[in-house]
């Protein structure tokens, strides 16, 4: 096993980033337009990186498979973005955000990266306010905050339930300015299908024009991958249906190590599955756990009656409700981290207390009645009515909730045809975010020189479980405040290199690989649709590499996916041609990558004989059903090196995690 060089700077944790920046090489302003950079992905990480690099004067080529950068999946983020500004005066700090993130990730994240993220968090808010992002404000006009899971302070800035959209529009406007100046060349409806390496360095990509089918060559001095996570390996997830792992997986197959693939976040607050023909799942923001209380009936017969439609939630008296998170975790209650809340919901439903009338009886209540009464009384009192009637309390309370969460309640009602002001929401955990990803060093460079990876596409900041409202924080920190400095250190040696030629044997070979794969799918005479294989993969992944795993199931998953891969290449059918808009061809290429990744995820989970964060092995749990880490044997990042299409050839390399500034201890939210 090789030793990975993470390039973590020496010194005290609070000084590492500032000292590191002070000694990085620079590219002078007059030399930057000699340098070309490719950015793949235009969500918060890619969009902010493209805008920042172009603002500095570099020539940027930005690629997205959507019809516009403003449709990147970052737009779907609802609840907020964390920052250690201590606006509420509840003793928040950079160190506390750092500590909460390490603890939330179950002590499996890299200390130096997490502290840098916490340091830059406050700058992100200032940057976005300057861009005009309409964060929520309190009565006095100051930026408002709310709490998210795994913390005991209010540090989450938000814009109703559409924070991701507003932040993305800020980054998009910054990009548009640079597009207008000619510094960003935008390639919408293009998908990266191969990385080109010349003399050991990333020097370009092969992309497919998704409208015409044309295969294009694009060269650059460096390539930045910011293409998001791989949650859609499960088919059903909260991700947009187009979200995929292809860019990350292609660079993995060219030499970029893939780290901790088994770390997958299951979000506890999603609308339950309703049928076999469903194509994706819908997230209900974690911010709702600020005001909603999660419960199931205490009696199984009541749960059965609710599932059968004989009882409604309001028929269950208060004393017969099990607010199980408040019962099990009194210190944090409904705001425990996502992995803890998700497993607790699964435990209740597996025990027969689920309330949703689907095939699996999977569902719990998220109830706002307590908050409606509480806030109704407060508002009435503030208005001078010190003895309001129940009707007045309910009316004022519902208005308060509507002002706070209105668009989320509206979305829930449109999807379920149930009014969440009158009856509790029904929720259940679903795949949401992936903490694993391409291994990067402190400079965000992969094991391929010149290939940088940002945001959810890398592994670096969240350990085994991401705290809510930290995804937007990481994406913007990487794009606005990290990559502009670290990529310059790498590019300083390229100011005399000149334009990278696209007429080289390396580009020829990469283009041939892409065309060969496309021709195979177009000419394969199969009978099954791409989606049928993707659904079959998702079924294996959810049941055996999902919320709970065990050795037997993981071994079965590896074998079953191998058989599914073999069947896929024999019997997949892709209609149409390669020289047109062909969504089925796009999906076939992506599912081919998911099939390989799924096996690696199972292999990684099988290797890690412990439970931590989102990786829960049934064999390794405490008497109370909590995750049981093995710090002596597994305090490391597992970085996998591609050696061939046989999963057994993947070679694991370890990056030992050293905790110098935080004590390793059992995670407790009780």
Automatic annotation (TrEMBL):
Instruction: Name the lineage.
Output: Bacteria, Pseudomonadati, Bacteroidota, Flavobacteriia, Flavobacteriales
Print the keywords alphabetically.
Cell membrane, Electron transport, FAD, Flavoprotein, Membrane, Oxidoreductase, Transport
Location(s) in or outside the cell: Cell membrane
What membrane topology is annotated for this entry?
A: Peripheral membrane protein
Cofactor(s) this protein cannot do without: FAD
Q: Which family does it belong to?
A: Belongs to the FAD-dependent oxidoreductase 2 family. FRD/SDH subfamily.
Please give one Pfam family short name.
Succ_DH_flav_C
Q: Name all FAD-dependent oxidoreductase 2 FAD-binding domain ranges.
A: 37-472
Which InterPro entries does the UniProt entry name for this protein? FAD-dep_OxRdtase_2_FAD-bd, FAD/NAD-bd_sf, Fum_R/Succ_DH_flav-like_C_sf, Fum_Rdtase/Succ_DH_flav-like_C, SdhA/FrdA/AprA, Succ_DH/Fum_Rdt_flav_su, Succ_DH/fumarate_Rdtase_cat_sf
Q: Which domain of life is it from?
A: Bacteria
Q: What is its EC number?
A: 1.3.5.1
The molecular function terms in GO held by this entry are: electron transfer activity; flavin adenine dinucleotide binding; succinate dehydrogenase (quinone) activity
Q: What is this protein called?
A: succinate dehydrogenase
Reactions catalysed, semicolon-separated, are: a quinone + succinate = fumarate + a quinol
Q: Which GO terms describe its cellular component?
A: plasma membrane
Question: Which EC class, in a word?
Answer: oxidoreductase
In this protein, the active site sits at 338
Limits of the Fumarate reductase/succinate dehydrogenase flavoprotein-like C-terminal domain = 534-669
Q: Does the keyword Transcription apply?
A: no
Which BP terms in the Gene Ontology apply to this protein?
anaerobic respiration
